[in-house]
């Protein structure tokens, strides 16, 4: 019963978006749309919603693919005490989330422009830097409770370093890696500022399309369709992540 209540609590805020996505006309004081249709979907497609969705998905997956292993390696080194000046390195790793976002992005953009870095590559680099603090923190919590005895036992039995990594280490930390990848995915998926400033209009993602549509008048149904499409992938990944955790209750 509590699960149903919590699900309804989170689902109710999306009800107006669902209604608006099918509303061709919704005038005050009516509680429901006065005319329904697919004008919102048509407008969203005409505004480049499909291409923006694809660009956002690719960008988020690339950011997650790069930031997750980097965060895992940093977390492992920090957890094992293999890093000199640990406090300074920790501050450096977490600095992207402590600096004022707009000022930091403008400063980094100048450096990228002078270095002739392509806009799309620059967006990925900046978003990876922003995602690394989240992946490092998530993986460090996992490594704090990780038993190195499993790795040592495998090596004692004759397993190579590579075999130990693939057959012992990675399976044990897989749930933590999935959580970290989800956080990195959200960084890339929800970003607006970095893509706008560093991308320079060459990379048009879903948040940019939503903001552009929301800035106009009479685009409520189109904004609702685009907003719902932006919510679906994280919800799917969250469901997969929850199911994976349920299937592996004893892992990190």
UniProtKB/TrEMBL annotation:
The chain crosses the membrane at residues 57-79, 91-117, 123-143, 164-186, 192-211, 223-242. InterPro entries: MetI-like, MetI-like_sf. Residues 53-241 form the ABC transmembrane type-1 domain. Pfam families: BPD_transp_1 (PF00528). It is a multi-pass membrane protein. Coiled coil: none annotated. It is found in: Cell inner membrane; Cell membrane. Gene3D superfamilies: MetI-like. Keywords: Cell inner membrane, Cell membrane, Membrane, Transmembrane, Transmembrane helix, Transport. Its main location: membrane. Belongs to the binding-protein-dependent transport system permease family. PANTHER family: INNER MEMBRANE ABC TRANSPORTER PERMEASE PROTEIN YDCV (PTHR43357). This is ABC transporter permease subunit.
């Amino acid at each position: 019963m509590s699960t149903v209540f919590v699900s309804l609590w989170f689902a109710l805020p999306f009800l107006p978006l669902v209604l608006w996505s099918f509303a061709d006309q919704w005038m005050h004081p009516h509680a429901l749309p006065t005319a329904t249709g697919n004008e919102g979907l048509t407008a969203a497609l005409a505004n480049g919603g499909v291409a923006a969705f694809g660009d956002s998905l690719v960008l988020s997956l690339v950011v997650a693919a790069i930031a997750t292993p980097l965060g895992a390696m940093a977390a492992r080194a920090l957890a094992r005490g293999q890093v000199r000046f640990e406090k300074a390195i920790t501050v450096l790793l977490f600095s992207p989330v402590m600096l004022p976002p707009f000022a930091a992005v403008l400063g980094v953009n100048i450096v990228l422009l002078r270095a002739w870095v392509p806009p799309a590559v620059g967006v990925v680099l900046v978003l990876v830097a922003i995602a690394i603090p989240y992946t490092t923190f998530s993986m460090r919590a996992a490594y704090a409770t990780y038993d190195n005895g499993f790795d040592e036992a495998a090596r004692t039995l004759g397993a190579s370093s590579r075999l130990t990594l693939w057959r012992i280490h990675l399976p044990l930390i897989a749930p933590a890696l999935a959580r970290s990848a989800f956080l990195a995915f959200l960084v890339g998926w929800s970003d607006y500022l970095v893509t706008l400033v560093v991308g320079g209009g060459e990379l048009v993602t879903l948040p940019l399309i939503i903001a552009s549509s929301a800035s106009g008048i009479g685009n409520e149904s189109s904004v609702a369709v685009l907003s719902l499409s932006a919510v679906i992938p994280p919800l799917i990944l969250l469901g997969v992540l929850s199911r994976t955790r349920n299937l592996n209750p004893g892992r990190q």
